[in-house]
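Methods — Computational structure assignment.
A single polypeptide chain was analysed. Its primary sequence is given first, followed by the predicted tertiary structure written as structure tokens.
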Amino acid sequence: MSGFHGLFIPGPTNLPFRVRQAMDVPLEDHRAPDFPAFTLPLFQDLKKVFKTEKGQVFVFPSSGTGGWESAIANTLSPGDGVLVSVFGQFSHLWADMCRRFGLAVDVIDTEWGEGAPAEEYQRRLEADKAHKIKAVLVCHNETATGVTSDVAAVRKALDAAKHPALLFVDGVSSIASIDFRMDEWGADVVVSGSQKGFMLPPGLAIVGVSQKALEAHKTARLPRCFFDYSDMIKTNKDGYFPYTPATTLLHGLRASLDMLFAEGLENVFKRHRRLADAVRRGVAAWGLTLCAKDPKWYSDTVSAVCVPKNFNSDDVIKTAYHRYQVSLGTGLSKVAGRVFRIGHLGHVNEIMVLQGLAGAEMALRDVGVPVEAGSGVGAAEEHIRATAPKLKLGKVA
């Protein structure tokens, strides 16, 4: 098959050639005297992405799930209470992990398609007079439903309730793509992964940890070993790791950070918003709706598109994959068969977004969904053209 396969799942995302090239290096001595000259600036630059000056960022050879585990195991004790809202598959999985650790999990069941309900967080925190809740969990961007929550509002709920609980944030599909302000929003542990906005292969859990969480770590009693923050602190301060790091991925991470800073983080966020708006206009032109119930929840990294009743979204996904070499994200758990997902994050531009929409549009028509040819692509084109930088063109004599 000639050409490139179109990758429009919400992770892993497209791998820039520059990042791929940066990882094509000989294996090296990770205990060499000059290794810290590479790693120490890397640690500092990661703090800029999380927008923290006071916190510390750890890089584990792991998936985002390992980052979740590090947050729980390092800061909590058996039987501690946690408060979490569940409104998609990934927020559900985080709650399930807490149960497996023997924590007392208070779940705010929320309709899939909505985001974290800050008012309900505040109500339950105010009712917790004994402060049994030790951590509040919120999924910043629920990848399963294409919903982004207001983390700042959850912090305000904690402050309004005068509650001392730690604030944990799942930022796996938001960090480096959607604006996140760790210090300003008072987030204590923020979990991300390499395969989303960082434009890398899977394999790194990138975790921001506040000083408050590091203090809690000193008295937390859940068992930990591989993810122990103490081991990381002890070795990271000198530019090393407590075990063999994924050095090739770290070189890719260096290239990724350089790309993000060259574009400018604020411009990265604007690009994601602009391209997401193009996708949303395309979906509306098809006559379809998003899983996200309201524009305030719309995600700038992934759109979960609902298919009409009597259609199966898996048919759309299979058709796009086999007929047009386009990968779309599948519906998960409660929305299986009801939605397909278009990932528009990381290393993506206007033409790539149009490619994904075209593949999805043809697949929709192939399975019988009444979509007018060119409607979604055309609507996205018009938005992209209207918002593109203006050029000064020369006149022809």
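Note: The mean pLDDT is 98.
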